[in-house]
Amino acid sequence: MAQRWGGWLSAWDNVHVEAEGCREVDAERVLVLLNTIGRGKTSGVELEQTHVKGAVVFHVRHGKVTRLVQYWDRDRALTDLCLEE
Questions:
Q1: Per-residue confidence at 20, pLDDT binned at 50, 70, 90?
Q2: Residue 54: inside a domain
Q3: Domain holding 22: CATH number?
Q4: Number of folded domains in the chain?
Q5: What is the spatial distance between Cα 26 and Cα 65, in angstroms, rounded to a whole number?
Q6: Contacts with 5 (C-beta within 8 Å, 6 or more apart), sequence order
Q7: Can you name the residues that pair with 68 across neighbouring β-strands?
């Protein structure tokens, strides 16, 4: 996982992720809505221009994250979780 993330991150300048909000899905899951910001090293494209609004679902048990599900498409996350924004 670290190698894949490292490869993806290396294509961008000043890439960072901002949490837009979070909400408890149930007793063991938390949804975090994300905005990804950065500029392509080669293309110069701003990630904000591509409207990269994703989400992460953290599965938590006994105070520890046991699973993390990354969504590049926020609407897909909301649909999968039967939630509306």
A1: very high
A2: yes
A3: 3.10.450.50
A4: 1
A5: 14
A6: none
A7: 58
